[in-house]
Specification:
59% of the residues lie in helices and 4% in strands. The protein is built from twelve helices and three strands, in the order αααααααβββααααα. It has a three-stranded antiparallel sheet.
Length: 308
């Protein structure tokens, strides 16, 4: 059943939930689309069971929906996400008095598999930044930009969307800190080191003025035509850099975020400090990087110890 065929009450509830996520929770357009995709899947299933409005939703409906998702081959991570979306949706419906009781209170889904994110070794990062510095030696504007983006992504662990959304005045060069607007419009301040500072300064002095136009506005990083760089462009740049590296399966900017977090912990950084730098709302999210560090330690042990 397509969303166009949903009963009017269900379709209207989904639309209201989307407006709530965007206006009151400050969710990005991408996040809202992801939530609504899951909610519309649930409501389409409910409609096939003859349910016309939210009052007809029951725990059994939710369980059968997840069961159908599982039978279609959805991963445990997807099932866990969809269950979380269903709980958020029904909790909102209770607050809005669209339903009297929350049918998802006892809804359970398979726990997510803890996957260890791809992480570059420090020697690989050094090769990346050395290559980017060499490529920018002639002062070509886009090469200067790419070097600055790479250094800043690794130095701060920011998300690609956060990097693309940065303005020039988000930088505090004297303190070498960066103001970052993260998920849910939460603001944090992140430090960065001297190599990133030098790369960004070089971009601002020699690269950005060559690309800037009257419509560039305050954007820190620009595209070839002078507009704000978009996430797709950043991903493409980093993907090309990693492919040229040749000895890693890492494919995009998130690998730099994973690497920054892991290298901080490897160097003795406090877990809560890393949580603050990355902008995680939950410490549990940051803790996955402790597993990465332990796994790397185990690999080193197995390679080096004569009785491993």
């Amino acid at each position: 059943m397509s969303t166009q065929d949903l009963p009017a009450a269900l379709d209207g509830a989904a639309a209201r939930f989307g407006r709530y996520l965007e206006a009151e929770r400050g969710r990005s357009a991408h996040t809202v689309r992801a939530y609504l995709s899951d909610v519309e899947s649930l409501l389409a299933h409910a409609a096939t069971e003859g349910i016309q409005d939210l009052a007809g939703l029951e725990l059994g409906t939710l369980r059968r929906w997840l069961g159908a998702q599982s039978e279609s081959g959805k991963s445990r991570a997807t099932l866990a996400r969809r269950a979380a979306t269903a709980r958020a949706f029904t909790a909102w419906a209770v607050r809005e008095e669209l339903i009297d009781a929350d049918p998802a209170l006892r809804l359970k889904a398979p726990k997510r598999e803890k996957s260890l994110p791809g992480v570059l070794h420090q020697q690989q990062v050094q090769r990346l930044v050395d290559d980017a510095e060499a490529a920018s030696a002639e002062g070509e504007p886009l090469a200067l930009r790419n070097r600055a983006m790479l250094e800043l992504l690794y130095a701060t662990g920011v998300r690609v969307g956060e990097l693309a959304g940065m303005d020039v005045d988000d930088l505090d060069p004297d303190r070498r800190t960066l103001r970052v607007l993260g998920k849910g419009n939460k603001e944090r301040t992140v430090p960065y080191g001297l190599p990133a500072a030098l790369a960004v300064d070089d971009w601002l002095r020699r690269g950005r003025p060559a690309l800037a136009t009257g419509s560039s506005g305050p954007a820190l990083f620009l595209g070839a035509r002078g507009g704000r760089v978009d996430q797709r462009q950043v991903r493409s740049v980093v993907k090309d850099m990693l492919e040229r590296l040749g000895d890693t399966a890492a494919t995009g900017p998130h690998a730099l975020r994973h690497s920054a977090a892991t290298h901080l912990l490897d160097g003795g950084a406090d877990l809560r400090a890393v949580q603050e730098i990355l902008g995680h709302s939950s410490l549990a999210t940051t803790q996955i990087y402790t597993h990465v560090s332990v796994e790397r330690l185990r690999q080193s042990y197995q390679q080096a110890h004569p009785r491993a």
